[in-house]
Specification:
4-stranded parallel β-sheet; about 50% helix
């Protein structure tokens, strides 16, 4: 999220919260301390991908700290949309990529294998990437495994939608139409469970909007507007 934080810093004070813990409860506490020690409350909380779920869980627990909630490229809130994700993945991957993923799955506990795995998914999840935005990111495979196993259980057990139903602050969700994560898996639950929500769909855009050639400018415009219309 560093490029997004840098862009937003042109308009607002920004904290990029770096996740370092190995359970959702510990991540919530880490985010809580980051906010109360470094900001004027309440804040606008922006969550990307898995971070969108974390933002929802946090806001449900500490609603007085959050004025607005912005979800970027969230995963679907209900298990029933997983079949659609799998269908899209099967359509977009080449035969060679499918074979490569099967080879890598047995060694995902190694960082190099995890990065190679991620590159394949990044290509599949993107409409048209901007080449100069590739970042050298250190990956924590153990953190990913522990957090994701806990997170998907929260979704599959139906707890995530119950948490979503308890959100009272305004929510804006921004999603790429080409994202493998089906936008209806975000749009429909928001409409059902959150009265004060808005959904924005970006064309020619995949999972990482700020890296998309055709959607980057539109993404930043709607993001800034969602935070504060007076800045647009």
């Amino acid at each position: 999220m560093k490029p997004v934080a840098k862009q937003l810093s042109k308009y607002f004070g920004v904290i990029e919260s770096i996740q370092t813990k190995y359970s959702i409860d510990d991540l919530i506490q880490e985010l809580y301390l980051t906010i109360v020690k470094n900001s004027d409350k309440p804040v606008v909380l922006v969550g990307y991908s898995w971070g969108a779920w974390l933002a929802i869980i946090f806001t449900n627990k500490y609603p007085n700290l959050i004025s607005k909630l912005i979800l970027i490229s969230s995963g679907p809130f209900e298990e029933k949309y997983i079949a659609e994700m799998d269908r899209v993945m099967n359509e977009r991957l080449s035969k060679e990529e499918k074979t490569k993923l099967l080879e890598l799955e047995s060694t995902l506990n190694k960082e190099n294998s995890f990065k190679e795995f991620g590159k394949i998914f990044n290509r599949m999840d993107s409409y048209k990437l901007i080449d100069d935005l590739n970042q050298n990111i250190n990956l924590d495979v153990d953190m990913y495994t522990k957090i994701w196993n806990e997170a998907k259980k929260t979704r599959n057990d139906g707890k995530l939608t119950k948490i979503l139903e308890g959100i009272t602050v305004p929510i804006t969700a921004i999603h790429g139409k080409y994202d493998r994560h089906p936008y209806k898996g975000v749009q429909k639950p928001l409409k059902k469970y959150c009265k004060n929500s808005k959904f924005i769909l970006l064309n020619k855009c995949g999972h990482t909007p700020w890296k998309e050639k055709y959607a980057k400018d539109s993404f930043y415009k709607v993001l800034v507007e969602a935070i504060d219309k007076s800045k647009v």
